[in-house]
């Protein structure tokens, strides 16, 4: 405590830490005044005014980033999603799931902005927001703050690692489609093509500077646009009568639809970084706002591709609609190769996120002179793990729905619903507690996608695995043994 001045018998105190700490806690809004009325009328903390971003993104730039994060390879899985819902149910379901995903992102960003005021911090990430919601929430839940923060951090890491496995299957199946046409007498299995991606993926994932990954991302974007254009050409060329397709599929297949749409549409991991680096973050939410514009475009495009892709190929549609394109036409083959290369280049960019999280946890416990070899080892092991898992379960459609069910339904739907409830518990849950009931509904959708989607996906994998002739040795399937033998021969 420091006495700095005396005026008219009133003592003005500065740096009174106990009061400062209490005032920073929203549960105790101090009105203590010593010698000045200015303390009462202190201007509320505005996190936007305190953000110091070296290279802030414009509103248009932020819109492009958000579109890029949501418009990826997942859009090509939408026709397969419609197969599990039906034409009419899929169209309506895409709008509903898209609206729920958009609302969850909105809730998360709005909560983060409000918590920045409470914590007097300029910005927060996803994990920080979840931890702060508990830290500044009901007293009984405050001890859970560190758990919430750590859980989201690890869940994000697992989500990106799981997505990498899907990428490996994308690459393998598209290359197989083309090369089988040119090498008909020596057709390799999907598992073998997964194994063949190992060397290029290990090499490209040794790039540690995000700056050097930008060219790969730019090339991948160009390839994706060309592939998407070619695919749409084939989809709209000679569309059959929509009446030939199933309008509403069996309810037992709906969890696969929900999980696939969530996987394709959800970009929860990049939302907070985009908002945190905006030059005018107040334009992220609201109407029209960056979020609403981006998600309107995303939902529309996903619905169009899913709707017409299912009309075109019906129940024969595959996990990536590019796999339904003709095998013997150069244009279709080029789309498949471009798709595989685009995913190959995107892999390294996606790999950067979980690797950054893993390294942040480990680097302090490792001697500096071993940092390089440790980085190489961890990166190699992570790539090998993703390739091995992809080769073990190479069914693209079921893999996508499983990842969406387990990871993105939890992070994209359940976590924002819980955070919103905790944050507003003491602040008020609205008339008739409508915020609580709304979040309960979202949580139920998330849990249905989590448990039912996972169950149906795993059952599908087991069924397909059992249809393959089993090897009497250690229960390893003949296709897996064949893949190992083919790899050794190569």
From TrEMBL:
Amino acid transporter transmembrane domain location: 57-459
KW Membrane (keyword) present: yes
Protein name as annotated: Proton-coupled amino acid transporter-like protein pathetic
TM helices/strands, residue ranges: 88-109, 151-170, 190-207, 214-236, 256-274, 286-310, 330-355, 399-419, 440-462
Keywords annotated in UniProt: Membrane, Transmembrane, Transmembrane helix
Membrane topology designation: Multi-pass membrane protein
Region forming the signal peptide: none
Location of this chain's protein in the cell: Membrane
A Pfam match: Aa_trans
Name of the gene encoding the protein in the UniProt record: LOC113523359
């Amino acid at each position: 405590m420091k006495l700095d001045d005396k005026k008219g018998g009133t003592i003005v105190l500065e740096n009174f830490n106990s009061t400062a700490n209490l005032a920073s806690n929203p549960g105790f809004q101090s009105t203590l005044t010593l010698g000045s009325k200015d303390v009462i009328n202190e201007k509320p903390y505005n996190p936007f005014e305190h953000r110091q971003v070296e290279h802030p993104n414009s509103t248009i730039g932020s819109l492009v980033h958000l579109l890029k994060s949501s418009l990826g390879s997942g859009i090509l899985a939408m026709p397969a999603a419609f197969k599990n819902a039906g034409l009419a149910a899929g169209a309506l379901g895409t709008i509903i799931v898209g609206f729920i995903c958009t609302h969850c992102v909105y809730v998360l960003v709005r909560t983060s902005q409000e918590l920045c005021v409470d914590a007097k911090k300029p910005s927060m990430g996803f994990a920080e927001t979840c931890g702060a919601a508990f830290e500044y929430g009901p007293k009984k839940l405050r001890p859970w703050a560190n758990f919430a923060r750590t859980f989201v951090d690890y869940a994000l890491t697992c989500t990106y690692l799981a997505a990498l496995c899907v990428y490996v299957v994308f690459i393998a199946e598209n290359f197989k489609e083309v090369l089988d046409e040119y090498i008909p007498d020596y057709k390799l299995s999907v598992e073998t093509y997964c194994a063949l991606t190992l060397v290029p993926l290990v090499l490209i994932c040794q790039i540690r500077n995000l700056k050097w990954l930008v060219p790969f991302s730019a090339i991948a974007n160009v390839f994706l646009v060309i592939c998407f254009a070619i695919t749409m050409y084939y989809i709209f060329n000679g569309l059959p009568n929509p009446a030939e397709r199933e309008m509403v599929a069996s309810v037992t297949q709906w969890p696969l639809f929900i999980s696939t749409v969530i996987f394709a549409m959800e970009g929860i991991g990049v939302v907070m970084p985009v908002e945190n680096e905006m030059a005018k973050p107040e334009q992220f939410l609201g109407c029209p706002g960056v979020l609403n514009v981006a998600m309107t475009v995303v939902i529309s495009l996903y619905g169009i591709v899913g709707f017409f892709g299912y009309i075109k190929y019906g129940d024969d549609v595959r996990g990536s609609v590019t796999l339904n394109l003709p095998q013997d036409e150069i244009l279709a083959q080029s789309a498949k190769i471009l798709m595989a290369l685009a995913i190959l280049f995107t892999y390294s960019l996606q790999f950067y996120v979980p690797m950054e999280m893993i390294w942040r946890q480990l680097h302090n416990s490792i001697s500096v002179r071993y940092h390089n070899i440790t980085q190489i080892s961890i990166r190699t092991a992570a790539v090998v793990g993703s390739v091995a898992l992809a080769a073990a379960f190479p069914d693209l459609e079921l893999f996508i729905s499983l990842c969406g069910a387990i990871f993105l339904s939890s992070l994209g739907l359940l976590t924002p619903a819980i955070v919103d409830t905790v944050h507003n518990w003491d602040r008020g849950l609205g008339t008739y507690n409508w915020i609580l009931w709304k979040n309960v509904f979202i949580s139920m959708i998330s849990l249905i996608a989590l448990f039912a989607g996972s169950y149906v996906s795993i059952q599908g994998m087991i069924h397909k695995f059992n249809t393959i002739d089993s090897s009497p040795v250690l229960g390893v399937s003949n296709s897996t043994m064949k893949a190992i033998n083919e790899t050794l021969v190569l």
